[in-house]
Amino acid sequence: MTSEITPPMPSWSIEDAAEHYRVDAWSDGFFVVNESGHMAVKPFDDGPLSIDILDVVAELRARGVRFPAVLRFQDVLRARVKRINLAFAEAIREAGYQSTYQSIYPIKVNQLHEVVEEVLDAGKPFGLGLECGSKAELVATVAHLESDDTLLICNGVKDQSMLSLILSSQRLGKNVIPVMEKFAEFEELIALADAAEATTQFGVRVRLRTAGAGKWADSGGYQSKFGISLPELMQIVAALKANSTEHQLALLHFHLGSQISHITQLKQAAKELGQIYAELIHMGLPIRYIDVGGGLGVNYTGAFEEGSIQYSLQEYANAVVSAIQDVCDARKVPHPILLSESGRAMTAHHSVLVVETLGAFRKDNAPDEHVLPSDSHRLAHNLNELLTWLRETAWKDASVDELVEAYHSVVEIHQEAATLFAMGYLPLQQNALIERMYWSGCSAILRILRSSWPDSLPPQFYELQTLLVDQYLIDFSVFQSALDHWAIQQPFPIVPLDRLDERPTRRALLVDLTCDSDGKISQYVSSNDDKSFLELHELNPGEPYCLGFFLMGAYQDIMGDAHNLFGRVAEAHIYGDAEEDGNFWIEKVIPGTKIQDMLAQVQYFPNDLQRRMQNQVKEKIDSGAIRPKLGMAILDQYKACFEDDTYLVSNRVTKDVSD
């Protein structure tokens, strides 16, 4: 067989890489491809400082940190908090709104202590508050109300213990507002307050007619899991009036769900709640706050397509302010303090998951120099003729129809071989040879179609593209570190951290370490029409090839599942500083979960396991099956594993990132 002739590839630049992986579209200005062809972070809104992510990776490796690892760029987190608050300040200024806005961080989005503290600190100039949705989250958040003015919104189902702690916090003078999700909660809160002879304040989540859209449509509307109906709201109002406690109702709340895709839904819901607010004000209830809930979206794909975010941050703020203001002005009622719980929009951008590629596995092609033995099966000879034509003639002047016909012939030969093998008429060795030649034929046809007929590709091209995708094995678990991709098919931007000045030549499907067929990334963010694969580079022997998963800061850290007992990954907290080497410094490194810690979560404990293993080794030594020295070496090896990471350890030589 003659060598394949591959047409020359067009040139490639870092601008091409940024466009291909859509970096400018999803990064919101925080991530760029730098002049070295590396991914970099620009953590500040007010300066040109840039941090090469590979420099951070290199320093962490020097400290002995193993990957996968989460890199938290804390300045990005602070910048997102600032952007949201400034957007609402601008909307209020432009509209002449006669009240204020406070951002609320719902800790369910990312409860990690460092994240919550960073958000609180960044939000101090803006009066940022917190939101909790469970008893455990209440215990975590109430201790962080260092100022009596800091607002804490308490959502979710509440039992007597949770309501009692809320009342106690109010008696301490803290600005804690439990949001009534059910009428029974209101009754229980009032009963507890009366029994303690304490005053209270509360809010109501109203079940609006307006529903959301997409995956979280049922978070709003009549099918909502939570919320007080209008008849129940009237019952609450009647009860308050009967006891002259109208002042206790401080807040009205709605929530359309995460990732609101269209601004019109938000406006409609805000106007509906605004009308309810105006009616209640006229009825003598001095409500202070309107909370529009969460839903401020993050554009993970960078594309304005179905299911993506169709608005900007400023448009979101303008919509909330104008919708409430229009109703209030028309109904001649005071403008309330506006709240929003935009947790995803605050946290998503700051976190990057860095993973190493362990290997690339592609279809088993026959080598170009392979000479077909004369005694090979006739089907192998038929395939060889097709391959010779493809490599020597077709790449020069074959038509699309001829290439499609060749593809059909390759498929037919492959199918006939499968039939003969199943009936026992084709030896295993010949079947393996035919399979390798089948993949060689498919690869050659795809290559010629792509290079010679880019503007008139037949359907068979897309069949071949799907068939011939490589599998890149990466050192992580989808279920632990990207659960939303598995659960709701959320695409995350994934970009190589270096070599972005080189054209990527392989079509890859990323697969993880778990023994589950769902342990893979099946949707990608790129400029390709086909989002079922990601274009990556050929792996260089002995060099690490790191990928960055971006926009990972919301939900992924806390919702991970311990499939196959893969644990939490290591993480590093990074700050930008122009006076430091590489423009950054690492505040803290948190190791990943060790094997013994994961085992303890499912009630396997080191002492018991080691005792059991020791008994087995002793039995083999006593029986003469193994020598004592070997037995002790095996036992020591077993014990050492308890302190190991749950992920694989790559033995590749670290690539020099200094050049």
Which key terms come to mind for this protein?
9-stranded mixed sheet, alpha/beta, globular, 8-stranded parallel β-barrel, TIM Barrel, 22 helices, 659 residues, 41% helix, Methane Monooxygenase Hydroxylase, Chain G, domain 1, disordered N terminus
Summarize the structure.
The chain is of the alpha/beta class.
User: If helices are DSSP runs of H or I spanning 4 or more residues, what is the number of helices?
Assistant: 22
Q: Shape, please?
A: globular
Total beta-strand segments: 20
Instruction: Using the 3D structure, state the CATH architecture of the domain at 100-108 and 121-350.
Output: Alpha-Beta Barrel
Proportion in β-strands: 5-15%
Integer-rounded radius of gyration: 30 Å
CATH topology value of the domain at 100-108 and 121-350:
TIM Barrel
How would you describe what is shown here?
This protein is an alpha/beta fold. Among the domains are: about 100-110 and about 120-350, TIM Barrel; about 380-465, Up-down Bundle (Methane Monooxygenase Hydroxylase, Chain G, domain 1); about 595-645. Strands 4, 13, 14, 15, 16, 17, 18, 19 and 20 form a nine-stranded mixed sheet that branches. It has an eight-stranded parallel barrel with strand order 5-6-7-8-9-10-11-12, surrounded by six helices. A three-stranded antiparallel sheet has the order 1-2-3. The longest helix is centred in the C-terminal third of the chain and has 25 residues, at about 430-450. The radius of gyration is 30 Å and the shape is globular.
